[in-house]
Specification:
By secondary structure, the chain is mainly α. Helices cover about 80% and strands about 0% of the residues. The protein contains 11 helices and no strands. Helix 3 packs across helix 11.
């Protein structure tokens, strides 16, 4: 399958409108820098873009921009991957098993409203300052969304379909593998998308507190050194990589869940 075949017409149209919107944003930004005092406190698009590309060659701190992005991406994928696996398992258990729901759900209701960044003080106290702390904060940032969406998928299984399967002699494990799990896939992908965005927000906060490298650290270094360009570089990096990952995830869902209305 070629790249042209992989990218749908709807995706192409979305990208075109997105690029036009981005160009309009740059034009408004430039006009604000030229005709108002905004340019005295914030770099112009030209300066920001030039600094952004120069950062791929000239290191900021110990790494170039590509190195910082790679570190942040690695952290997010590890924390996000762990939270996704744990969230899917617990969500399926609570959605399919009444006993598991009765045991886990009250505890989950306490944890669910707490944002990932609120765990930073406890994470530092329990784990210390290091990579494990960052992974934990990212994990907590995406965990609740994954659990909720997966649980909703497992709970919205047609009772008639399950009843027919039992009449035909299907066992519980067969019902789970053949009915519950496939029917929950669109909801799981929705949780993956939502969890990804919260994981990116969590890595930004975690790197500003406990890291010495990464896209989030770039923002902190810009504040400490007075180089607002570093703030812009960090923000652009997180936004661009997050956008690409979200687009890839949506396209993967569209391909894998083409039979469902939810994935269109």
């Amino acid at each position: 399958m070629t790249v042209r075949q992989w990218i749908s017409d709807d995706t192409k149209e979305t990208w075109i409108y997105g690029i036009l919107g981005f160009l309009l944003f740059l034009m408004v930004w430039q006009m604000a820098c030229v005709f108002t005092d905004f340019g005295t406190i914030f770099p112009s698009p030209g300066v920001s873009i030039r600094t952004f590309f120069m950062a791929f060659i000239e290191p900021i701190g110990r790494y170039t921009l590509l190195g910082h992005i790679s570190i942040s991406l690695k952290r997010v994928l590890i924390g996000y991957g762990l939270s996704s696996v744990a969230g899917i398992i617990i969500g399926l258990l609570m959605g399919y098993s009444k006993m598991a729901h009765a045991i886990i759900y009250p505890i989950f209701c306490i944890v669910r409203p707490i944002p990932g960044i609120a765990w930073i003080p406890l994470a530092i106290l329990w784990i210390g300052i290091g990579e494990s702390t960052i992974y934990f904060i990212i994990f907590m940032g995406g965990f609740s969304q994954m659990v909720m969406n997966t649980m909703d998928g497992a709970q919205h299984i047609s009772p008639e379909l399950v009843g027919v399967a039992k009449v035909l002699g299907a066992k519980e494990n067969q019902i789970f593998r053949k009915i519950v799990l496939p029917s929950s896939v669109p909801y799981i992908f929705t949780g993956l998308q939502t969890s990804l965005s919260t994981s990116w927000m969590a890595v930004l906060a975690a790197e500003m507190i406990t890291a010495r490298e990464g896209a989030g650290w770039l923002i902190l270094s810009g504040m400490q050194t007075g180089r607002i360009e570093n703030n812009v570089i960090g923000m652009i990096s997180i936004g661009a990589v997050g956008l690409l990952l979200a687009a890839l995830l949506r396209e993967t869902e569209r391909r894998l869940c083409i039979w469902t209305v939810r994935s269109r």
